[in-house]
Amino acid sequence: MKIVVDCEFTQLNQNSKLISMALVSEEGHELYFELNDNYRHEDCSEFVVERVIPQLSGGSALISTESARNKLWSFLSQFDSVEIMSDAPIWDWEFFCSIVYHQGKWPSNVANTPINLIDLFNEKGVDGEEAPELPHHALLDARLLMSYYKQYLKE
Fold first, then answer.
1. How far is Cα of residue 120 from the mean position of the Cα atoms in its chain?
2. Structural domain boundaries of the chain?
3. What is the CATH T-level fold of the domain 2-152, as seen in this structure?
4. 84: helix, coil or strand?
5. Among 19, 63, 128, 134, which residue carries the largest CB count within 10 Å?
């Protein structure tokens, strides 16, 4: 099962902290959460304060890192085999790993390297200009990326 992961985070540097994560499978299964214990408002860049924070859902989506880990493991366990895809694996994959890998354990059904969607699009000659602008909300972005993948790349 191919699953798109998308994350929102505090800034584009080595001090970045995860704010939210979404996963959307080829079959439409979704997981979305926002972390309530991983960052402070002061950690966020101006862009994040203006574009990302106002879109956060709050409510039941707002959970601890430990709860997020449990939900992520449960979500992934419903699939026989998982390949994670991302348009920005240098960021999203690192955050995915930081949540899913815990106490030396990795889900046995999850491939240990991501698929770079941008590379796939380029290999297939798909023009990036055709892609919709992502709204910088992890769940909406993951849905759009999966839709784009299914439209142009799924064989």
1. 17
2. 2-152
3. Nucleotidyltransferase; domain 5 (3.30.420)
4. strand
5. 19
